[in-house]
Amino acid sequence: MAATNQENFRINKVLVGWKDTREARRAVLDAMPFLRMAQEVGVITIDDGPTDQTWNGLDDVVAFLDMHGVEAKAEVFPEKSNGRTIADVAGAMNADLVISGAYGHSRFREWIFGGATRSLLEADRLNGLMSN
Predict the structure, then answer these.
(1) Is the CB of residue 72 less than 8 Å from the CB of residue 43?
(2) 100 near 89, Cβ under 8 Å?
(3) Is 16:43 a contact under the CB 8 Å cutoff?
(4) Is 6 part of any domain?
(5) Helices 52-67 & 22-30, crossing angle to 10 degrees?
(6) Looking at the domain assignment, is residue 45 inside a domain?
(7) pLDDT of residue 88
(8) CA–CA distance, 104 with 86 (Å, rounded to integer)
């Protein structure tokens, strides 16, 4: 019998970093099995000046998740200058998993200027599921 060094992976709290993009929609669909297992799901977007369109988009995601048996709460957070908001929120809520789209911009632009994908990848304390 082979020995493993696996630790238990719990999925009680899941955070969805939302931006109305193909990548984010794909990530939510890809992560549906994990979202259904979660006891708490938060859907956040980063926006310094949220509009009705911002909130309508979040409401649509929450309604979509509800149709699939996932209860979620939506929030909007202002952007921090270092781009670490999603990772910070995930840490504050003790999220077990962060779900997001990846590379909504070109990888080169992300590498040069940084961005949400880069900051999430650098947050080594987080478990993440990203879809492109």
Answers:
(1) yes
(2) no
(3) yes
(4) no
(5) 20
(6) yes
(7) 83
(8) 15
CATH of the domain at 29: 3.40.50.620
* Token duo for residue 74: 């939506």
Q: What is the pLDDT of residues 45-100, one digit of tens each?
A: 988 889 999 999 999 999 999 999 999 999 998 887 555 677 788 888 898 888 88
Asked if residue 115 belongs to a domain, the reply is: yes
Q: Structurally, how many domains does the chain consist of?
A: 1
Q: Which two tokens stand for residue 83?
A: 């781009």
User: What's the CA dihedral at 60, 90, 118, 7 to 10 degrees?
Assistant: -120
- Say if CB 113 and CB 119 are below 8 A apart: no
Q: Which tokens is 27 given?
A: 């990530």
Q: Evaluate whether residue 8 is within a structural domain.
A: no
Half-sphere exposure (CA, 13 Å, Cβ side) for 124? 0
Each residue's pLDDT tens digit, 104-120? 444 544 444 345 555 55
